[in-house]
Design goal:
With 66 residues, the protein is an all-alpha fold. The protein has helices at residues 14-23, 35-64. The chain has a domain at 14-24 and 32-64. The protein has 2 helices and no strands. α1 (14-23) runs antiparallel to α2 (35-64).
Length: 66
C-alpha cells in the first residue's frame, strides 16, 4: 500500500483510464472462479480504482489551483 497518498503520480489521462477499464473490466464472480482468480481480479481493479482517484485529485488540483 502506498504510504503517502498526498503525493501525486505523473499526469494521468482519461484515455489511459478508459483503456484500462476496457482491458480490465469489473466482473462479477462466477461459481467456477477460484479464490486466487477473485483475488487477482480484485487486485487489478484496486489499482485501476486507485489511478482513477489520483486522476480526480489531479484534476481537482488543476481546477482549484492547489
Amino acid at each position: 500500500m502506498i504510504s503517502d497518498t498526498n503525493k501525486l503520480l505523473p499526469d494521468l489521462s482519461q484515455d489511459l483510464l478508459d483503456e484500462l477499464d476496457r482491458l480490465f473490466p469489473e466482473k462479477s464472480a462466477t461459481p467456477s472462479d477460484s479464490p486466487n482468480t477473485l483475488y487477482y481480479r480484485g487486485g487489478q481493479r484496486s489499482v485501476i480504482n486507485f489511478l482513477k482517484e489520483q486522476f480526480e485529485r489531479q484534476n481537482k488540483t488543476i481546477l482549484k489551483g492547489e
